[in-house]
Amino acid sequence: MSSKITLRSIREGRVKGIGECLVREYRITCHILHGEINKDFKEGCRATLWDKDKKPKWKPSKLDLITDDMVEHYFTKLDGDDKDRK
């Protein structure tokens, strides 16, 4: 999942300004930490930091199983994105 998200972000970032890129990266990070689509971040931490077995069980387990809709979710606005910021 991270590979597909990163590739898309790099491709989009080539034609965007720094402000837009920072907003996009913040959204992606928030979606990853919330774990709404998958729990790969938590699983990676488990396999590396907690259990230290270095055998993460990614879901989905293959790139072919990751749909464009799944990746799209990480680029969507967060709740409250439309509120005024001070």
TrEMBL record:
Q: What is its EC number?
A: 3.1.2.4
Give the top-rank taxon of the lineage listed in the UniProt record for this protein: Eukaryota
Q: Which Pfam families match?
A: ECH_2
InterPro entries in UniProt = ECH_dom, HIBYL-CoA-H
Pathway terms, separated by semicolons: Amino-acid degradation; L-valine degradation
Q: Write out the function statement from the record.
A: Hydrolyzes 3-hydroxyisobutyryl-CoA (HIBYL-CoA), a saline catabolite. Has high activity toward isobutyryl-CoA. Could be an isobutyryl-CoA dehydrogenase that functions in valine catabolism.
Can you name one GO molecular function term for this protein? 3-hydroxyisobutyryl-CoA hydrolase activity
Positions of the Enoyl-CoA hydratase/isomerase domain: 2-75
User: Biological process GO terms, please?
Assistant: L-valine catabolic process
Give the similarity note.
Answer: Belongs to the enoyl-CoA hydratase/isomerase family.
UniProt keyword list: Hydrolase
Which reaction does this enzyme catalyse, per its entry?
3-hydroxy-2-methylpropanoyl-CoA + H2O = 3-hydroxy-2-methylpropanoate + CoA + H(+)
Protein name from the UniProt record:
3-hydroxyisobutyryl-CoA hydrolase
